[in-house]
Design brief:
Blueprint lengths: L3 H6 L7 E4 L3 E5 L9 E5 L11 H21 L4 E5 L10 E6 L16 H12 L3
Antiparallel strand pairs: 1-2, 2-3, 3-5, 4-5
Helix pairs in contact: 2-3
């Protein structure tokens, strides 16, 4: 059965797309830690990030870097934090989280619930800076 992220890649589930190429997709987390929280995934379904081929892993991080640069321009912050947890969805992914403090990337805190309009505006803002 395809993962939630594979269903997003296939267009079965909508997302607020930030960036896409032939092998990768970046989209906004719908329950973000902070505004601008982006998920970066390989389009190929692989459960564990370190099961990617070395070239695929490098390409995923290069794609994430491109997105992070645009994200930092769109969301004023000190840093773009990264996290790879891999327990919640069995599809390799990188979290890009705009941070003012280390507490902004605390996955145990209550998540935000932005509206679809807020997500659309944020996605457009990031896209404009890529």
């Amino acid at each position: 059965m395809p993962t939630l992220f594979s269903r997003i890649v296939a267009g079965e589930i909508p997302c607020h797309k930030v960036c896409e190429d032939e092998h990768h997709l970046a989209f906004l987390d719908i329950m973000p830690l902070v505004h601008g929280h982006v998920l970066v995934i390989p389009k190929r379904e692989v459960d564990y990030i370190f099961d990617l081929e070395p070239s695929e892993l490098a390409a995923l991080w290069q794609f994430a870097q491109r997105v992070a640069v645009g994200l930092k321009l769109a969301v004023p912050c000190k840093r773009i934090g990264t996290a790879v947890i891999g327990l919640e969805v069995p599809h390799a992914h990188i979290h890009l989280v705009p941070m003012q403090t280390v507490g902004d990337i605390n996955f145990t805190k209550e998540k935000l619930q932005p509206t679809a309009e807020q997500l659309s505006l944020m996605a457009a803002s990031i896209q404009a800076r890529l």
